[in-house]
Every structure is written in C-alpha cells, then in structure tokens.
Amino acid sequence: MAKDQLIIFDTTLRDGEQSPGASMTRDEKVRIAKALERLRVDVIEAGFAVASPGDFEAVKAVAEAITESTVCSLSRALDRDIEVAAEAIAPAPRRRIHTFIATSPIHMKHKLKLEPEQVIEQAVYAVKKARQYTDDVEFSAEDAGRSDIDFLARVFEAVINAGATTCNFPDTVGYNLPFQIEETVRTLLTKIPNADKAVFSVHCHNDLGLAVANSLAAVRAGCRQVECTINGLGERAGNTSLEEIVMAVKTRSDIVDVETHIDTRHIVPASRLVSSITGFPVQPNKAIVGANAFAHESGIHQDGVIKNRETYEIIDPHDVGVETSAIVLTARSGRAALAYRAKNIGIELTKLQLDKVYEQFLKFADTHKEINDDDIPGIVDLANLNS
To answer: Which of 14, 169, 236, 337 could form a disulfide with 144 if both were Cys (CB 3.0 to 4.6 A apart)?
Structure first.
C-alpha cells in the first residue's frame, strides 16, 4: 500500500534568518535555495517580501532561480503584505502565498487588539485576497499551540471555505509536548467538517527541545506537511530540523506511515553550506549532520562497527552525504580500532605485534586527546617489533 507524501516546507530563508546574526544577502539566499532544490524540498519559503526592499529583492531572485520547488512568501493578513508577496513570487513557475494571523487569546488581546470574530473575518479576507494571485494559499494560525481548540476549528473551517489549500498549526513558542500536540491535532481534524479539502501542516519551535518530536506527533495525528529549517535554525531556540525529521521518517519507515521526496544524499552538503553562509557552526554532536554523528570512540563500539556497521549505526552515512564512518583513536579505543586504522595506512600487524603496539599506543594516548594516522608509524617503531 502506497504511503502518503509528507510535504517538506523549508523556511531556512525566512524563519531561519530570524536567528540573531544569521542574516543573508540576496545572492546567498539564492545559493541556499538552489541547494534546497537539489534536496528536492517541496516548498521553499524564500522570505517575508514586505519586510524590507532587500527582502523583496531576495524573494524575487529566488523565484527567478527556482524551477522545480514551489516558492513561497510570508505575509500578514493585510492587503499590502499580500500584494507585495504576490509581486515577489510572480516569476516562479510554482508559487504560494503564506498568510497568517494570531489566534491565541493572549495575542488577540494584547498584540492585535481584536475580538475573535474580527480575527476570523480578517483571516477569511486575507485568504480570498491571496487567491486572486495564486491557487496555492497557505493559512497559519499564529500561536495555535496556545489557542482555544474550538475557536481554532472555526478559523480553519472558514479559511478552507475561503480557498486555503494548506492550514498550518504553528507551535509558535515551543510550548506543547508531543502527546499534547498529537491529541490536539487529531481532535482538531475531527472538529473541522471540511478538513479533507486542505493539507494540514505543523510548524514547531524548539524552546523545550521538542520541535522534531512534536512534528512527528502531529504527523502521526494527520498532518501531511512539516515546516522546518536546515540545521534547525530559527527564532530563539530554533525550528524543527529538516535533516532530523526527514531521516526519522526514512529510518523508521516500519512504523511511520508517510514518506518524503527528499534526496537525502544532499543533506550534509546543504547543512555545511548554510553553516558557512550564516557563520553558525553545527555542534559536533548534532544528529545527522554533526561532525560526531558517525564517529566512534569507545573500543566496544568501534569493534562492533568494524565488524558490521549496523551494530552501532542506524543510518548509513552515505545516505546523507557522508563518505564513511570515523573510527577515532583515543585512550578508550581497543585493539580492533588500532589494527583497523593501521591497516588503512598500510601497516599489517599480527596478533602478537598488535599486543606490543597496543601497549605503546595506550602510553601515547594517555597524553594526547586523539591519535592521528601520522602518529601510528611512530607508535609502531616504539614497540620495537623486531626485538
């Protein structure tokens, strides 16, 4: 039985750029957009066109450069925002306007200063306005994670009737827990009579470190689009990490009932490009794309990986664009790792020779954080194998 497609909506160029210090030039955004297209990302949110002349030009440049992925611009539920977004994305063969308004009590009262009925009216107006320019319109209920579920259902029902083709549930401040968001989305879908007329989406933030888990929970409940960013970049603690959500879906295909169209071999190159452009280093222990994601230091783990990679790796590094696993030599490494690394540089050791070399190796390793290939011949010499 064919699985549903999980649409991957990348917002590195919009929400990712909202990471303090992560601003990008127009040309840098185009380079990243092309990398996202190589990844076969379904939707690229190129920016917030009305935010500034520079943002407008960047969105337009991405729209001119991208031919396969859908190019999207964010807009508030305001006439000028929607008009500028439409103009910026016009060159793209596939284009989407993503309009939003807040629906939580705290936002409606303190930020918008609008009554709930006024919010519904504004949301419907915005969607109808956006449909004048494209038949691909996404509506987001900002701060949906803290919104009243019955009110949220009314908003989504109204915008679907107005022409929204995607309805997005943003956990704007990363407040929800996985079991909560799964239950909320599942209940929400049962309360919306026309839910089958739109794709439901989720946009999670990582304030409690749960963005990926929450996104998976929402997918389990029926969402068929996930909004995410390369390296999990984004406002405050960041967004759902594209590489993590995609590889979770691929790796656990035995229990996840969706699949993506992402070409995962381009994940690590895209991660490195975004890191180099933004100046945000990827933490070494970051899942999938960190320098240590496929590195093994414990002797027991190294022995297992050398014998069969799957003993300690659930993902083939080649699948994400990494050439090979790394066997890192330290004082915690065993004989198997030493013999493996020695053989890789042309030094074959018998069992007796390995025992002698290993004694010298441990002495050397106790005073060095890591042993490189260049160190191995000297360690072998110290073992005095001919004596």
So the answer is: 169
Q: How far apart are CA 137 and CA 153, in angstroms?
A: 18
CB distance 229 to 240 below 8 Å? yes
pLDDT at 386 over 80: no
Contact 169, 202 (CB under 8 A): yes
**Percentages helix, strand, coil for the chain, rounded to the nearest 5?**
50, 15, 35
Give the DSSP per-residue string, 320-352. Answer: GT----EE-BSTT--HHHHHHHHHHTT----HH
Distances in Å between the alpha carbon of 197 and those of 69, 97, 251, 258?
A: 22, 18, 30, 19
Report the C-alpha gap between 94 and 43 in whole angstroms. 9
pTM of the model: 0.95
Token pair 């969607």 is found at: 127
| Residue ranges with strand state E in 60-132 | 70-76, 95-102
**Neighbouring C-beta atoms of residue 43, cutoff 10 Å:** 24
Going from N- to C-terminal start, the domains of the chain cover 4-278, 295-382
Contact between 42 and 66 under an 8 Å Cβ cutoff? The reply is no
Q: Which two tokens stand for residue 213?
A: 């888990």
φ, ψ of residue 201 to 5 degrees: the values are: -130, 160
Letter for the amino acid at 303? D
Q: How many CB atoms lie within 10 A of CB 265?
A: 14
Give mean pLDDT, residues 165-191: 97
Closest CA to 64 of 27, 10, 97: 27
d(CA 307, CA 295): 15
User: Does residue 181 contact residue 205 with C-beta atoms inside 8 Å?
Assistant: no
Angle between helices 79-89 and 53-65 (to 10 degrees): 40
- What does DSSP say about strands 4-5 and 7-10: parallel, antiparallel, or unpaired? unpaired
Task: Give per-residue pLDDT as tens, 115-173.
Answer: 999 999 999 999 999 999 999 999 999 999 999 999 999 999 999 999 999 999 999 99
Q: What is the mean pLDDT of residues 295-305?
A: 96
Question: Which residue, among 176, 275, 272, has the nearest Cα to 223 in the 3D structure?
Answer: 176
CATH class name, domain 4-278: alpha beta
| Burial state string for 162-175 with b = 16 or more CB within 10 A and e = fewer than 16 | bbbbbbbbbbbbbb
Contact 151, 125 (CB under 8 A): no
142: β partners: 102
Residue 274's φ and ψ, nearest 5 degrees, are -65, -40
